[in-house]
Amino acid sequence: MIEIHLILIFMIAAAVVAVFVKDLLSSVVAIGAVGIGLTMGFLILKAPDLAILQLVVEILSLIILVHATIRTDLPFSASGRWLFNTISALLFIATFLFIAYIALKKLPQFGAVPPGAAYQLSENWFGEGGAKNIVALISLKARSIDTLGGIAALFTAVVGVLAIARKIGRTGGDDGL
Asked: Which of the two ends of the chain, N or C, has the fewest CB atoms closer than 10 A to its terminal CB?
């Protein structure tokens, strides 16, 4: 569980950076790093459905926030910061790949019989559920409310993006209003 502690430290550090950085766009990117850290935490805790939902909502909200701040922020200057930007990007990519490697290495082998409670669920539910595999069975019987909540959150995120990205006052004709 050392991975969870490392991710929490990463998330806290990114949140502190987001609060104390002077550049508004850098603050938005730091908040995005907190969301990506949360996604990796969900993956390590073996909740891939939450991780996918968090990743989609995080990417959409990051696009909205970058779109909103790119016009209000100070003019972009690339001079003098290319070394820092390159090193931070490479460090972030290396950290992400390392934690993803650790998380993916701990996944069970494909087709392995699930231990413990999942095995008991599969033994008891296969006769009454009618599903051919355990993933579909658990999705249909035990996780349907969670899946409905995830779909509602994705729908809300997409509607939010469409509402913010639309052009205000753009109509088909001139009605004099």
From this structure: C
